[in-house]
Amino acid sequence: xxxxxxxxxxxxxxxxxxxxxxxxxxxxxxxxxxxxxxxxxxxxxxxxxxxxxxxxxxxxxxxxxxxxxxxxxxxxxxxxxxxxxxxxxxxxxxxxxxxxxxxxxxxxxxxxxxxxxxxxxxxxxxxxxxxxxxxxxxxxxxxxxxxxxxxxxxxxxxxxxxxxxxxxxxxxxxxxxxxxxxxxxxxxxxxxxxxxxxxxxxxxxxxxxxxxxxxxxxxxxxxxxxxxxxxxxxxxxxxxxxxxxxxxxxxxxxxxxxxxxxxxxxxxxxxxxxxxxxxxxxxxxxxxxxxxxxxxxxxxxxxxxxxxxxxxxxxxxxxxxxxxxxxxxxxxxxxxxxxxxxxxxxxxxxxxxxxxxxxxxxxxxxxxxxxxxxxxxxxxxxxxxxxxxxxxxxxxxxxxxxxxxxxxxxxxxxxxxxxxxxxxxxxxxxxxxxxxxxxxxxxxxxxxxxxxxxxxxxxxxxxxxxxxxxxxxxxxxxxxxxxxxxxxxxxxxxxxxxxxxxxxxxxxxxxxxxxxxxxxxxxxxxxxxxxxxxxxxxxxxxxxxxxxxxxxxxxxxxxxxxxxxxxxxxxxxxxxxxxxxxxxxxxxxxxxxxxxxxxxxxxxxxxxxxxxxxxxxxxxxxxxxxxxxxxxxxxxxxxxxxxxxxxxxxxxxxxxxxxxxxxxxxxxxxxxxxxxxxxxxxxxxxxxxxxxxxxx
Length: 696
Ligand code: NAD
What we know:
Helix content is 49%, strand content 12%.
């Protein structure tokens, strides 16, 4: 680069730095204000700005102490992840933190909003930490396939001891300010004016430095570290970043701090460029993108205070809990008293267990339950703002329920169905207000699973969709917008995956081999273990209702299992046999049945390797994703990955099936899909893969 140009770049960088970080002096205290909206991410300009501020403060004899503080509603909420795709620009956090530690003047971190990742590492480089109530603090780097790389693994154990540091860092935990105070992550929680409190803290320090790096590590009780590690690192299930984080924290006890900091940084840089970290970053951005809806910009969602839930079965009860946890009033309606009582009892049991296990205080549980009402009288639904139907999966039953809702629920309320597969347009037509109808497809257990498919019909109004998305946010769910089509996004992709796995069964792979291959890929459970767990009969009933196209390849194994009463785990047998204690066993009878059906289909058994099983299963998902895009059921390829990761146990650290497929490049992927089509036989619809590579 010519010298002149270099100067220009430097000048521009300095200008950005001054814009994002400024000094405001109050008496002898310099407030270093980080002002980089919306979340004060620790960009290169922010880092440079803080470094320049430290130099200015060092050189100014009129300044006795400094305070780092965020403008707007947060401290530094994390790093600029976009930057992680390229070599990091200087100055990097370790250099900035070293400058603060070397400064002869004390620095105070005054936290509010969020102090996460590099933001909290910066605070650990200061001489004191105070926080406003409600501040969220943590080092969640492992959730992005990294370890804290700016001293977090060395300074945190010096501040709070190795066992707690291990727990927080290896779990990527975020804690509220009250817990942060109890653990020692901050010196005090201050209500009222944060600046005034920081000024007081500066006075308290009286010019003294109090660096975390100089603190001695407090010895843990004998065996305590091993006990913590055994819990944090279950064999075979721990991701590399978590192992690396655990090792790094333990270095705090065995290496001098500067050597340990250098090692920590090297590991961080190695992990930053790993495939796993790239996949996790991709998923992070995919979720952010899925929450953006340019077509709904400026649309005002309706008010949401009281939610009705129809049906108190598995899903209805879970949805009611999700609503109560989201601070809403919930009214549950059933067809008879007995079913209603069962639903209410299951919700009460849920909260009892949460209290017994220490996850919720009895007070909070009591408040949530006080917001639950139940009735068999539909007239009680009149005032609700939104109602979610979760009755049997039967179009006639659902249409009847919606006609009834139309008659009792006030105008302006949103009418939603939790249907898994049924035609929402047909459901909407049973009301006089189809524009108020949407799908809100929760996943089981509804209070736990993060995914919520928000489904638009041909006539859903923008305000109604915006209200569905608002509900998702209220419940802490990850919402993905889909259009009305059989199975929406998730069930449709999952069905293609399962069908491909059934093809492989028919061709010679065993259920246990397929499950093992996909579990080795990272799924929590293989497809046949999942089928047994959820029961084979629901899909069986649906297949029978739909009828069959004789020209499409059809694997009869699941039907034959159902016909012999092997409905899955609940029947003690399905693709596997289950013992009294719930243990899973391979059953030779299933192998014999598969052999018989293979012979009937005129196929010869052949050997499968795990790699082929994984490849076919994932290609089938990616192919279906491209079909969904072509049909406009999904708006973006990355939305499909958000659905798979948050609703279907797809390993987050693999990014998703679309991410996996795109890594192969368009031409190789196209060749592989030809191969998959040929393996899959008649009826396989091959997609145009270009859809997957087109960005937003
Ligand atoms: P379920 O059988 O556990 O519960 C259905 C409840 O609806 C029962 O309690 C029943 O008494 C009640 N009900 C039936 N007809 C009614 C009527 N006319 N008025 C009032 N109440 C009535 O079923 P579920 O598993 O909770 O599924 C409910 C819905 O959620 C279905 O549409 C299903 O496809 C969908 N769903 C289920 C899952 C799952 O994994 N179970 C996941 C996502 C979506």
